[in-house]
Design a protein that fits this description.
Blueprint: H1 3-22, H2 27-37, H3 47-60, H4 66-76, H5 89-103, H6 108-120, H7 131-141, H8 148-161, H9 167-178, H10 196-214
């Protein structure tokens, strides 16, 4: 069996093990979510991203309700249409979480909190006194603080997901999203704050390239 197939099996098994710890006796739902993250058009927002978010949650966790945060992670990119349809991907994913988790027997309070966390990944700006929101947002943004080669691979994968969008249009839209992140608070968990400098260095480097594409000095 090719090495890539073995790695895929290992990743699937690890994800299912994590799912079964979080929500036992709901293996069918876990498998369906993995299938969503395995859609062929996903070149960054895929099973590897899901796995990295879950791992980073464990790395950054302190006194958090990990049950809610982990479920938020599983659903945060469960729907990822390019371009998105009537609803944004975050809103569609939040509604999916309510629908699927209600069938799994979760209480309304938990359904509300998980869907709220999913919607929060649209802006990555949690309110004050929202430790679960801070943790999920920090985990989702953790790719920004990776070594330059890994960051560049992430950027290339996101660009490939939007290959149909012309370079200047893509650069302008991405610049609008990234430039506000180059200054000020980025990570909000106590452990995540140590990653800010590395993330901002990557962001400034990418933004410089994007400005060149759109003709901004």
């Amino acid at each position: 069996m090719p090495t890539s197939d073995l790695l895929a099996i290992d990743l699937h098994d690890d994800l299912m093990a994590r799912w079964d710890v979080t929500l036992p006796h709901q293996s069918e739902l876990g498998e369906s979510l993995i299938q969503r993250y395995s859609e062929p058009h996903r070149l960054y927002h895929d099973v590897h991203h899901l796995h990295q978010v879950l791992v980073t949650i464990d790395e950054l966790a302190d006194d958090h309700d990990l049950f809610l945060v982990r479920l938020g992670a599983w659903f945060h990119d469960a729907i990822y249409d390019i371009p998105f349809r009537e609803l944004t991907n975050e809103e569609a994913s939040a509604r999916l979480s309510v629908r699927e988790l209600s069938r799994a027997g979760l209480e309304q309070e938990d359904l509300t909190q998980v869907s709220r966390l999913v919607r929060l990944t649209a802006t990555h700006v949690p309110a004050s006194r929202d430790p679960e929101g801070e943790l999920l947002c920090d985990a989702d943004l953790a790719i920004l603080a990776t070594p330059p080669d890994d960051y560049d691979a992430y950027v290339a994968a996101v660009r490939a997901e939007y290959a149909a969008v012309p370079d200047e249009e893509f650069a302008a839209a991405r610049l609008q999203v990234l430039e506000p992140l180059t200054e000020g608070e980025l990570f909000r968990t106590s452990k995540g704050r140590a990653r800010t400098a590395a993330a901002q260095a990557n962001l400034r480097r990418e933004c410089a390239g994007l400005r060149a594409i759109v003709g901004i000095d």
